[in-house]
Every structure is written in C-alpha cells, then in structure tokens.
Automatic annotation (TrEMBL):
Pfam families: RNase_T (PF00929). GO terms for molecular function: exonuclease activity. It comes from the Bacteria. Residues 45-225 form the Exonuclease domain. SUPFAM superfamilies: Ribonuclease H-like. The keyword Hydrolase applies. Keywords: Exonuclease, Hydrolase, Nuclease. It comes from Pendulispora albinea. This is 3'-5' exonuclease. The keyword S-adenosyl-L-methionine does not apply.
Amino acid sequence: MRVVVDGCGCFPTGRHYAGIAHLLRAVVRGLAEEFAGDGSWSEIPIAVIDVETTGRDASVDRVVEVGVVVGRHGEVIARYNWLINPGVPIPEEARQVHHISDDDVKDSPRFHEIAHEIAAALAGCIPAAYNAAFDRAFLANEFARSGPQASAGGPESKQAPALRRDVDWIDPLVWAREIHKEEKSKALGEVAQRLGIALENAHRANDDAEAALRVFYSLANDTRVPRTYGAIMQEQRRLALLQSDERRFWKN
C-alpha cells in the first residue's frame, strides 16, 4: 500500500490511525531518484546553470554561452564554461546585455558539438538556476535540437537530472523572494550585493552561475530553509505557487 500524504504522516484531518500509520509515507514529487529525499541536500553536488542567449524566447532564440558551477557542503568544487556559436547573428540588444559578439563566437563550437560535455558536467548533481524556468527552457530546447544521444553524457550513462523532465530544479530566486520579501529588488545582482557576494561580470554565464550558487548557500542559512532534499523541494514548490498567485493578483 502506498499513500501520498502532505508530509505530516496523517490524514487531512490530522488524525493518525494506528492500524495503518506505519504504512504511510510522504511522497515528494520532482526529486532525482538517485538521491534520498530524507538525506541532507548539502551532501549532494548542486550544479547551478546559467545561459546567455540571443534573446528571451527559448523556442526560437539560441544559447551563446553556458556556465555550470558545482557546489557541495557550501563550497565551489567545479566550474565549466562554453562559448557557443548559435548559427544566427547575435542581436545588438542581446549583445548589450552580455557583451558577447558574433566575432567572439565565430570560431566556437555549435551546441550539438559540446552537448555531451555539458551533459557530463551535470551528471550526478541536483540542477539549479536563478529564475530556473528561463535557463531550463533554453537548455531543454538546445538538447532537443541536438538529438537524443547528446543528453546521455556517455554511451552507458544515465541522463543527468537537469535533463529529465520530472526533476525539479532548485531556484534561489524563490528563496530570495521569501527571505528578502521586504526588499524591492530580487535581481541576482541586488541580492548578491545585500549578502556581500561579489558579482563582477554580471550577465556572463560562469559569473552569474557562481553568484547564484553562493546566494543560495547564504540564503540557506535561514531557518526557513529545510535541511533535507525532499523537504527543500517540497517547500520550494509551495512557495513558488504562493508567489505565482501573488504576482497574478498584482497584475489584476
């Protein structure tokens, strides 16, 4: 028997039933199956991903830079960066944001040529990104264009958690909106500055990714951030839904 509950170990009334209470187990959606939900997320490598692009529409715009910074136990343990030739001109509006020009990427590989390297860097890690929906959409579309073999990271390896549709990403922006709710700006640079975290080259993939990782680790010192992998993802999902409802209310 497998019953999905909200984590309290009881029925919606809050009452425990002695005869079957030992059979109840909380099931948290969105977890990478290779990591125990009741284990500490700080023990698991977290890969923060940042992409710089030709525009904001993931269905048509392309990636020009990917940065991946991996952390564990609150420290950076690996950094990866790729400049990518998008195969289309980089609009001036986008260039003014990230300062990557057509000349900068003219001799760089196309995404499909280094997709396996990116997949390998993401393997065995919890995926994360600041405003994760943006980076996730671009990454997913680039891998889709590259073909199914590109996402494996090797002939015998399993697809990285970041490339699986059923795995949720950690999003430090959700936590910034909760913990810094009284502050006006939740932009990465502003949050980093408030926390005393350096971000010298904003809108470059590696710099943004590392700043986002350090912001997350700093925000995670707050008592509102759960300690286990399952609990933090469950609470993030709850907060994200509340924040989405609040933004809809503001627009109305």
